[in-house]
Amino acid sequence: MFYVFHGLCFVCSCLFLKNKILGEKKGGHTKDLVWAISHKWYVQSQSTNILKLHFNLFNKNKLHLFKLFCLLLMCLGMQDVDDFFEHERTFLVEYHNRVKDSSLKSDKMTRSHKKNCLLYLLFIYRFFLKVSELFDKTRKVEARVSADEDLKLSDLLKYYLRESQAAKDLLYRRSRSLVDYENANKALDKARAKNKDVLQAENTQQLCCHKFEKISESAKQELIDFKTRRVAAFRKNLVELAELELKHAKVIVSFLL
């Protein structure tokens, strides 16, 4: 309705100015008036008077204005004679409305993503602050765990690595002593067969036998002690290590909670 009223006002203004020009034509002011009408400042300066005249003309000539109103409505609903321009007009109106709606929705989406960005930044700040504190506390616990593992497990394994190597060397010496004892027995048998250097062969055989028996006895006792100490040490250290790691794990869980 606003556009209709505006159109009526414009038509009435044109009619009023036409009558004004024709009425003042005899006075010789026609050219000056036409020149003034062509300028915007004149229309703006006379806007108040024109509006008053609009209502006066509306009261004086209602039938004429009604015809102009009908003509304006026909112009608004009229289709273009050229199909191309009619199609373009329809398309541009629809396109403009769609683009306007999409622009509003796009701005809303952009603002939402910007808010999400700020929320993510705040979340990251708080998250990494908490995580850094957690990692610092966990680092200290892991240092204690490392020290306990080094003391209770690594040192134990290194110690019994050397002990097992010593036990292997002991068995190797016993095996070597056994070979010497067997060779001495063979040499004694050959000496008795030849009846030559029998006394020397017997002394060598007895010495090798005594050495073999002595190393066998000591090796047996050492191996038994090694087994007993090994089992007890591993049981003790592994149990203590498990208790310490359980304690440290509870501390880490308390940090997470």
TrEMBL record:
Which keywords appear in this protein's UniProt record, sorted alphabetically? Signal
Which GO BP terms apply? cellular response to amyloid-beta; intracellular protein transport; negative regulation of DNA-templated transcription; negative regulation of neuron apoptotic process; negative regulation of transforming growth factor beta receptor signaling pathway; retrograde transport, endosome to Golgi
Q: Does the keyword Ribonucleoprotein apply?
A: no
Q: Does the keyword Endoplasmic reticulum apply?
A: no
According to the record, the signal peptide region is 1-23
Tell me the GO molecular function terms: dynactin binding; protein homodimerization activity
What InterPro entries does the record tag this protein with? AH/BAR_dom_sf, Vps5_C
* One Gene Ontology cellular component annotation held by this UniProt entry: lysosome
CDD domains given in the database record? BAR_SNX5_6
Every copy of the Sorting nexin/Vps5-like C-terminal domain together lies at: 189-253
Q: Which Pfam families match?
A: Vps5
Q: What is this protein called?
A: Sorting nexin 6
Q: What's the source species' lineage?
A: Eukaryota, Metazoa, Chordata, Craniata, Vertebrata
